[in-house]
Amino acid sequence: MCSHGKHDHHKHTCECPGGRMERFIQPCMLLLLYEKPAHGYRLMEKLSQFGYEDNIDPGMVYRNLRKMEKEGWVESEWKTEGTGPAKRLYKITSEGEDLIHAWAITIQNNIKRLQHFLKKYREIFEN
User: Fold this and answer.
1) Looking at the predicted structure, is the pLDDT value of residue 111 above 90?
2) What pLDDT does 81 receive?
3) What is the number of structural domains in the chain?
4) Boundaries of domain holding 41
5) CA distance 20 to 15
6) Residue 13 carries which DSSP code?
7) In-domain check, residue 100
8) Residue 3 domain flag
9) Burial of 116: CB neighbours in 10 Å, binned 0-12, 13-18, 19+
10) d(C-alpha 110, C-alpha 23), whole Å
11) Which of 16, 76, 116, 127 has the smallest C-beta neighbourhood within 10 Å, fewest atoms?
């Protein structure tokens, strides 16, 4: 049970700080940008591939894009072709690509830890 008492065993949800994977949006966005440079709005649409709801907070996406650009993981340029307002096109840098590989290793290690946790959880609670 969560120490703050916000865990609901019936709904299987938790509002614990560790229960959210907000930082995970960064490697997802980097992977999408590796696949193809994109505008922020397009990234929001494609994040559903990673389980993010369609109503993802645009502010979170753009905050992460700015942070990743500041870190040197992505770069952007304004595109003014076509009709409508100018749009910022984001693309991944070589540093961002290196980070994708590091995230993949971390995720693989975390999967192993999570599988061990679930195995132990089942041993305790499903017997």
Assistant:
1) yes
2) 79
3) 1
4) 22-125
5) 7
6) B
7) yes
8) no
9) exposed
10) 14
11) 127
Tell me, what's the pLDDT at 79?
A: 86
Distance of CA 46 to the CA centre of its chain: 11
In the structure encoding, which two tokens stand for residue 36, read together?
A: 């193809």
Taking CA atoms, 69 is separated from 14, 21, 97, 123, in Å, by 31, 20, 13, 45
For 75, residues 6+ apart whose C-beta sits below 8 A from its C-beta are 69, 90, 91, 93
Phi, psi of 54 (to 5 degrees): -65, -30
For residue 27, is it within any domain? Answer: yes
Please give the mean pLDDT across all residues of the chain.
84
Continuous segment of H or E residues that includes residue 124? helix 94-125
| pTM, to two decimals | 0.75
| Residue 14 within any structural domain of the chain | no
- Tokens (6 digits) for 42: 């397009």
Which pLDDT tens digit goes with each residue over 31-81?
A: 999 999 999 999 999 999 998 876 788 999 999 999 999 999 999 999 887
**Tokens read off for 15:** 């509002």
Tokens 């910022």 belong to 88
